[in-house]
Amino acid sequence: MNEMTKSTLSKVPAVTLGFWVIKILATTLGETGGDAVTMGLLHADKNAQNGGYLVGTAIFLAIFIAAVIAQMQAKKFNAWIYWFAIIASTTVGTTMADFCDRSLGIGYAGGASILLACVLASLAVWHLALGTVNVTTVATPKVEIFYWVTITFSQTLGTALGDWTADDTGLGYSGGAIFFGSALVILAALYYWTSLSRVFLFWAAFILTRPLGATLGDFLDKPTAHGGLDLSRPLASIIILVAIVVLVMALPQRAGRHPVAEQS
After folding, report:
1. 72: Cβ–Cβ under 8 A, 6 or more apart, which residues?
2. For the chain, what is the domain count?
């Protein structure tokens, strides 16, 4: 029999420069938005044991689950649903990481180590079950479940990693943002000038955009005494959200394509 190759549309966007710009803004919004609720409304920063991080996590987890259900029920890629789910995942990732690191006392390094193991385990199980972790294959409920579980772990890991880099290594928020931004530039160079696995480079970049967004968000809203700009968290969140909406409207948003072989 001859094999015929065609392509099928995925339910996630094609990976373009616009995708990465919106992703970084979404992760930054997750940091400022999550902090606005837990540290602003729930005063979790004043007392890590007051339940603020746990309540914030419960709120954003419910929103995230609803967003993922909407994403999975959609028949095809929808940019608004997809990016809403991404923002929800990065926001719940912020509150979950803060709850583990601060309320449970695991610490940044411990939390980052556990979450890195979770990300790697999720990718390993995904690969064992389906033979690939390429995001262009995200077109069925089974693959979508693996995708969103992995993303949730990666978003939570990014918060812990960003906080650990900024607070425990002495780099500060601006230094942390420069560090992770430089790491992404290196990955971009590897993408354009080497034949390294594109799937590996995607997930490495996807994970690293989260601590970049976390450190950028903290740089915007943390007190100047702690190395931040001390901007209003709600105001910063609104500005970033508006920027995301404008970019989703202005930049091409098309579904990724995955080649599949058919027997004839």
Report:
1. 141, 144, 145
2. 1
Q: What is the DSSP letter of 4?
A: E
Q: What is the pLDDT of residues 35-88, one digit of tens each?
A: 888 887 776 666 655 677 888 899 999 999 999 999 999 989 999 999 999 999
Burial class (CB in 10 A: 0-12, 13-18, 19+), 238: middle
Residue numbers of the domain that contains 62: 12-255
Sign (positive or negative) of CA dihedral 232, 233, 236, 241: negative
3-state helix, strand, coil in the chain (%, to 5): 75, 10, 20
> In angstroms, how far is CA 66 from the centroid of its own chain?
17
Torsions phi, psi of 143, nearest 5? Answer: -70, -40
User: Is residue 3 situated within a structural domain?
Assistant: no
Helix 233-250 vs helix 17-35: crossing angle, to nearest 10 = 160
Per the domain annotation, does 4 fall within a domain?
no
Of 50, 48, 45, 159, nearest to 96 by C-alpha is 159
pTM of the predicted protein model: 0.90
CA dist 125 and 89 (Å) reads 20
Q: Which residues contact 129 (CB under 8 A, 6 or more apart)?
A: 142, 146
Closest C-alpha to 20, from 185, 216, 235: 185
Tens of pLDDT, residue by residue over 74-126, are 989 999 999 999 999 999 998 888 888 777 778 778 888 888 899 999 999 99
pLDDT beyond 50 at 2: no
Position 6 pLDDT exceeds 60: no
Residue 118 structure tokens = 């979770």
